[in-house]
């Protein structure tokens, strides 16, 4: 046995001794036995599990469930909770308050209970939400309860075997997700806990609180107030799917309180199911994820479909389209984002310097909406940790189906409040004798027709991504197909008041734009493409040409 294999075995045995979970203990014990007997695949498995740790960053923790420092499990969660407690205790003089939420994924409730016990054991006031609930309810609770921090146990729309640990900060951060330097400071505290080497030594207490139902009631009331139903929409037919997640209970209460007609529900996907049995990948952006919703919509002759992802922080919308396969198509995140931004701009209090914001990979059409309505506009790095911090924000969005329509109560993307805002848009259109598709045409007539596309390169070896980014920086492209590059920005060097990021942005002679960056959550290099034209057909054609040009460039550089 070589030295590396012996080191991995020692790490695994030390981990096994402190693991309180019988399932992951049994899993790891079997791998240790096989690796110790010379099984090469087991030794490689140990190396994958212990060569590194799941990194704690601005998205908190997220990864596959299983034993080891490079997996999501009760040991890693205990270290994260104790590290976060240490950070909060060091940060202020008063006793910190932390609120904890969890969704319906495997392990979520257990991870939340461990966190509550460890926060209470460390001397913090720990408040556990009363049951599994959407991520936006936790984000709301941080502000509503004036907590110092919040933790949501969720992996959002990741595959079924993943889970995660998402952190928000109160106080000056106003309930937004963590950013630098807080992420690195929390990570350092977590590492100090891990270096002790035995989570059994961490103090625990069952003196945590269970939040009253008033917290959920307050979220429902605040979200229903985003957009009450107009008169005369009780016959509106729409379909809803919760994608096997936690959205249905809360959304149905909000819809009823706001006065909208109840949806026709995709029953097979209504209730939480950690196996996500009807979808291989529980992300409404993925091909096939909305197939059951399309089927239900055809059955009831629906006017539109609304879908939440499993933790209900994202929103997808689909509309009838005779040109699409099966007669239905999902709107892009940019299309939904511009419609909701148009609504927000019309309602915004102009005298206060109100602003719209989106990430730099989202449609520049939001800037055109802001300009038309005399509002400020901010473009940020990707992620609602940045969007939510835009000054005087009244609305923000990101193309990956994330929308922040109620910043006074929730400083994160919220698929439920976005659903209510979309219901109001659809209702108003119906009263005027038009549809969501008609609204898109109206908006295009005002600001021009914007189209967007995306090219993703998935890799097994992350060095390929860094190599591609290095090549693009060393030898910047002069054109994408027939379209010349007129300006190139490397955000790793900073750009205006935007934080530094691993992003390359190219502006083209016809007004189109290409943005290239590594994915923050997956082993992918992503290129985002935007174009504007006088018609939707022309804009879509320009995007299609650019997608081909980007694929050719990345293949050539790869």
TrEMBL record:
The UniProt record lists the keyword Oxidoreductase: no
SUPFAM superfamilies for the chain: Phosphoglucomutase, C-terminal domain, Phosphoglucomutase, first 3 domains
What are its cofactors? Mg(2+)
Q: State the UniProt keywords alphabetically.
A: Isomerase, Magnesium, Metal-binding, Phosphoprotein
Q: Which residues form the Alpha-D-phosphohexomutase alpha/beta/alpha domain?
A: 54-192, 219-318, 333-440
Gene3D superfamilies in the cross-refs: Alpha-D-Glucose-1,6-Bisphosphate, subunit A, domain 3, Alpha-D-phosphohexomutase, C-terminal domain
One Pfam family in the UniProt entry: PGM_PMM_I
Q: Which residues form the Alpha-D-phosphohexomutase C-terminal domain?
A: 494-539
Q: Which CDD domains match?
A: PGM2
User: Is Phosphoprotein given among the entry's keywords?
Assistant: yes
Domain of life of the organism encoding this protein: Bacteria
Q: Which family does it belong to?
A: Belongs to the phosphohexose mutase family.
List, alphabetically, the PANTHER family matched. PHOSPHOGLUCOMUTASE 2B-RELATED (PTHR45745:SF1), PHOSPHOMANNOMUTASE 45A (PTHR45745)
- Write the protein's name: Phospho-sugar mutase
- Give the source species: Microbacterium soli
